[in-house]
Amino acid sequence: MHHVLARITVKPEAAEQARDILVELVAKSRQEAGCVAYALYQQAEAPHIFQTVEQWRGQADAEAHMRTPHVGAAIAAADPLFAAPPEILAWHRLT
Q1: Which residues of 36-54 are buried (b: 16+ CB within 10 A; e: fewer)?
Q2: Which of 16, 44, 56, 72 has the smallest number of CB atoms closer than 10 Å to its CB?
Q3: Is 22 exposed, middle or buried (0-12, 13-18, 19+ CB in 10 A)?
Q4: Cα radius of gyration (the chain)
Q5: Which domain CATH number covers 13?
Q6: Is residue 89 packed enough to be buried (19+ CB in 10 Å), middle (13-18) or exposed (0-12)?
Q7: β-bridge mates for residue 37, sequence order
Q8: Model confidence over 2-35: pLDDT tens digits?
Q9: How many structural domains does the chain have?
Q10: pLDDT tens, residue by residue, 74-83
Q11: 3-state helix, strand, coil in the chain (%, to 5)
């Protein structure tokens, strides 16, 4: 199993627009063959900060996900909204 956590920070005034883009991205990503789980969180105290928690069958599936048209479209749509570059990291589950 391959786990990916992505933190997306947008400009505060863009939180609602970014949420809509990310909700659509999650729906399409969950349909990918290698996707085991894909959740989206919005920080309660700072609603312009989002976190995805993703589980993929393997690293190749996660890498293929990043090359899909829906990921490219979401990044292009969200790019002007970013307050910082997204932080996308692979993790090893310990427990």
Answers
A1: eebebebeeeeebbbebeb
A2: 44
A3: buried
A4: 13
A5: 3.30.70.100
A6: exposed
A7: 55
A8: 999 999 999 999 999 999 999 999 999 999 999 9
A9: 1
A10: 999 999 999 9
A11: 40, 35, 25
Q: How many CB atoms lie within 10 A of CB 1?
A: 12
C-alpha triplet 53, 87, 84: angle, nearest 5°:
130
What's residue 36's pLDDT? 98
What span, in angstroms and rounded, lies between the C-alpha atoms of 56 and 58?
5
Q: What local confidence, expressed as pLDDT, does residue 50 receive?
A: 98
Query: Residue 82: beta bridge partners?
Result: 10
Range 58-80 average pLDDT: 97
Q: State mean pLDDT over 54-82.
A: 97
Q: Is there a contact between 4 and 62 (Cβ–Cβ < 8 Å)?
A: yes
- Residue 8 and residue 78 in contact, taking contact as beta carbons nearer than 8 Å: yes
pLDDT mean across residues, the chain = 97
